[in-house]
Specification:
single chain, alpha/beta, D-Maltodextrin-Binding Protein, domain 2, 16% strand, globular
């Protein structure tokens, strides 16, 4: 086994044990029409802005459902809670759901955000091109198999004439820790998630390239949304009307946040803001990531992206039996 494979196995084992303990402490979800939809979220995750808008605007009452949030501490805990049946829906990316579906877990996915991360450098940094990263310390949010990192490596290959991962010193870690390392000058650049990129942008840090541009350069047009809600097929069977109503409310809340400044003013207290500039950047980055309808073009791009990630990440990313199953993706009835 490779060092990377051994590292990931140890990490996944520890994560599973910790997250399972959290999930086990939660009461089992009783599913039936009329019961609240139990949604596992990160305590300070940006999806809460969407959920708060649903409730603040009364879209949940209008559509005839209730949301009961289960707040957890890590993305791994969210997916474990879903797999353990401790929630009805959670937030994840569709490549994760695709792998689970291929492995026999009947998950479905619907996007709620097309916001993607970016490569950020200091305002006064001399880094102007990807070639300038050679020999530098590059923070990478997530781990060696993070989707943005794999796509960035593929995009950079021609410009740097090789694998940029071998030309920089990658520093993998959690986004807030990497942001602080960049502020302290301990790393030279950071490939991070969109909300952390927005906060750095507000502080004067410069966006060298974003993941949406990377996708376009790789021929992934339109760039398919990666993040959304994941749930089991049985939820549609047991509570189909609630699920349909929930996603109509999601679309309405996204449209409200895209067009209404008043809706954002209501969210300000929970956004952990340090400046007005940060508020505006977060609002604008979120708005830019509001997805349009999921259609054949997005499905074709998703299939192309899956093939690319299969080649880049190998079995450690997509599993031993990679297969693109279009049935994973679900759209509400209009």
């Amino acid at each position: 086994m490779s060092f990377l494979g051994s590292y990931l196995d140890r990490r996944q084992a520890l994560t599973w044990a910790a997250a399972t303990a959290i999930a086990a402490s939660l009461p089992l979800a009783a599913r039936a029409e009329g019961k609240p939809l139990r949604l596992a979220t990160l305590k300070f995750g940006t999806v809460n802005w969407l959920l708060d808008t649903i409730q603040g605007e009364g879209f949940d009452s209008r559509e005839g459902f209730e949301i009961e949030r289960v707040e957890l501490a890590s993305t791994q805990a969210l997916t474990v809670a879903l797999q353990a049946g401790q929630c009805d829906l959670t937030v994840s990316d569709w490549p994760w759901a695709m792998r689970r579906r291929i492995d026999g877990e009947p998950f479905r996915f619907a996007p709620y955000s097309a916001a993607l991360g970016a490569l950020m450098v200091g305002r006064d940094s001399k880094i102007a091109t990807l070639s300038d990263l050679k020999g530098k310390k590059l923070g990478v949010a997530g781990g060696p198999l993070d989707k943005s990192w794999l796509l960035f490596r593929a995009h950079a290959h021609k410009e740097v004439d090789g694998d940029i991962a071998a030309m920089v010193e990658p520093v993998f870690g959690a986004p807030p820790l990497l942001s602080e390392q960049l502020r302290l000058g301990r790393i030279d650049a950071i490939l991070t998630f969109w909300n952390f990129a927005a906060r750095l942008d507000a502080e004067g840090y410069r966006r060298l390239i974003d993941v949406a541009e990377v996708m376009e350069q790789l021929g992934l047009t339109p760039p398919p949304p990666l993040v959304g809600f994941v749930w089991r097929d049985t939820l549609l069977q047991d509570s189909g009307a609630q699920v349909e109503g929930f996603f109509r409310a999601v679309a309405a809340a996204n449209e409200t946040l895209k067009t209404s400044d008043a809706a954002w003013d209501r969210l300000k207290p929970q956004m952990q803001l340090s400046s007005d500039a940060e508020f505006l950047r977060l609002r604008d980055y979120f708005r830019a990531g509001v997805p349009g309808p999921w259609g054949p073009a997005e499905l074709a791009s998703a299939q192309k992206l899956y093939g690319l990630l299969s080649d880049l990440g190998g079995a450690e990313f997509v599993g031993p039996n990679p297969k693109f199953d279009p049935a994973l993706f679900w759209s509400p009835k209009v």
